[in-house]
Each structure stands twice: as C-alpha cells, then as structure tokens.
Amino acid sequence: MKIIVNKEMDGKRIDSVIPSCNIDISRSMVQKLIEENQITVNGQKIKPSYKTSLNDEIEINIPEPKQIDLKPQEIPLEILYEDKDIIVVNKPKGMVVHPANGNLDGTLVNAIMAICKDSLSGIGGEIRPGIVHRLDKDTSGAIIVAKNDKAHIKLSEDLKNHKIKKTYIALVRGIIKENEATINMPIGRSKQDRKKMAVDKNGKEAITHFKVLNRYDGKYTLLEINIETGRTHQIRVHLSHIGYPIIGDNTYSNGKNEWGILGQCLHAKALDFKHPITGKDIHIEAKLPEYFSKILEELEGKI
Fold first, then answer.
1. Sign (positive/negative) of CA torsion 273, 279, 283, 286?
2. Residue 135: helix, strand or coil by DSSP?
3. 120, 142, 161 — which closes off a domain?
4. For 169-195, what is each residue's pLDDT tens digit?
5. pLDDT, tens digit (0-9, with 9 covering 90-100), for 267-282
6. Which is the catalytic residue, given 136, 193, 200, 217?
C-alpha cells in the first residue's frame, strides 16, 4: 500500500497522516509497524516522529495475521453489556485474559470466542483477538472486548487518549489519612525480580487517583481508584510503594494475607466510555465478587 504526501499532509507527523487516509489502522499500530520497519518513506526507515514532506512516498506493509489454534471454550461468564460491536463482561478472579505460551486455554479469550463465534476483532494479534485492555489474572471486574476491527481501533485510541474512565475498588492494609490523593510515580520492570514491576525514575509515566470510601478498625482502608495510565500492575505497585499494599496481593504485600484468599482485593467496578461506533455514552458496573463482599461485611460487623 502506498501513499503520496499532498499539501494537506505536508509537515505533519507520519503517525497522524496515515490514520487520516481512511485506512483502518490506529496511530499506535502505525508506530508499531514503523518500529518493525514495515513502514518506509522514499524507501528509507523512519521514526514515528518523522514529519512528512510534499510528494513523499509512504509505503505500508501490514503483515497477515498469524494463524493460531485457539479453541472456543464454554466457560460461564457474566455478560454486562453486548451488541454487534462490543461485549463487556465481569471477569472473575483467577482467569487469565489472553493465552500465553504454555497457557492456551481456560482464558477470557477462549470463553469470549465461544460466545462471539467468528465476530471478534483480529487486531489484538495472534493470541489476543478482540482484547482492547486487560486485567491481571487475580483482579476481577469489567473488561471490554471488541467484536470488529473498527470498534477495536476506536477503543484503542480512546484508551490511549484517556477517554475511557476505569474505576476500581481496593481494600488495603493500613489507614490512609488523606481523603483523596494522586500518586504520580513512573513504573518499570523491577531490577531485583524481572517478574515484578516497581516504581522507577526511568520507567513509564503512571498516574493513579484515589479517594477513601471507608476506614476499618484502625487497620484497613477501602479505596475507590481511577487510573490515567494503564501500566502493568500499576495500582498494586503504587499502593504498595506508598505503604498500603492490597489485601491478598502476594506479589506486592510481603506475603501477608489475613483472610487466606487467593488473589488480591482489587476489582474493576465500573467503565465509562463512548460507544466506539454510535458515540453513545455508556456506564457499566460489575458487582463485587463474593469473597470481597464477605470481607467487607465482616469488617462492617454484618457477619
């Protein structure tokens, strides 16, 4: 596929020029293709920040999707919203979002494939069909899946531009004195343990807002959390770093687990976004899982 730069495109960044040409490709995908040398200008490698010049010849090579053997599986899922373009489900704790090496079944993708049949977006790549964003294995809650490429591209752009509001509920150890606060600390791969993330001045920007919903017994605090960025393990890393680890988070809480639960008390409670096709405002809530609700009831003296 080739594009010749005209006067309207002249002087603009290439990663904004290409999506403006009515090509079903997002800005982030353009950047990825440039990094993989699949997009050239006048036969030369370029960077995503390259500014086009009149009559530049842009050549785009979009690789064919890799064929994989993913099998639909009939796994019970709570569907919170569904139409011909998207589906939103309440992911249970303990379920991996997408397959990975050595873990090709029992995932959210396998379950969604059984529900949606052949109507999932392929943009997510070889093992992430339809997946726009993700939740950690042991984080429950609302997650959006795209059924077609057009919806996927728009949702991905909205996510990148912070237009999708994600609200979480978390129970942490310790009493947080502030009623509201923002944690703005970059996150990168831990230098001590490559399987973990950590606050790192050389990491990527990570911003987490929280407000206190309740305080219990001088020991625990219930938080409502909104994130501007979506770094791996962001909420868990930020709260642990400031001294308030999430209950049940064995990775970032020094192994303490008062209730002996598997997985952390972190739940994606709500999503607010515009429908990627109709533009309609959508608000969706996912109820707390039973184990989380019971802990709160115990702390509130109801059981």
1. negative
2. coil
3. 161
4. 999 999 999 999 999 999 998 888 878
5. 999 999 999 999 999 9
6. 136
CA-to-CA distance for 292 and 267, rounded, in angstroms?
Answer: 9
Q: In this structure, are 180 and 254 located in the same domain?
A: yes
Euclidean distance between CA atoms 256 and 216, whole angstroms: 18
Residue 7 is part of a domain; what is its CATH number?
A: 3.10.290.10
Structure tokens belonging to residue 271: 């999503």
The domain boundary residue, chosen from 32, 60, 88:
60
DSSP 77-134: -EEEEE-SSEEEEEEPTT--SS-BTTB-SSSHHHHHHHHHTT---STT-TT-TTBSS-
| Token pair 């219990």: residue | 216
Q: Give me 301's structure tokens.
A: 């003296």
81 lies in some domain: yes
Q: In which domain, by residue range, is 171 found?
A: 167-267+294-299
**Does 136 qualify as catalytic in the annotation?**
yes
Q: Residue 251 contacts by C-beta under 8 Å, 6 or more apart in sequence?
A: 196, 233, 236
The tally of domains found in the chain comes to 3
Supply the pTM of this predicted model: 0.77
The secondary structure element, H or E, covering residue 171 is strand 165-173
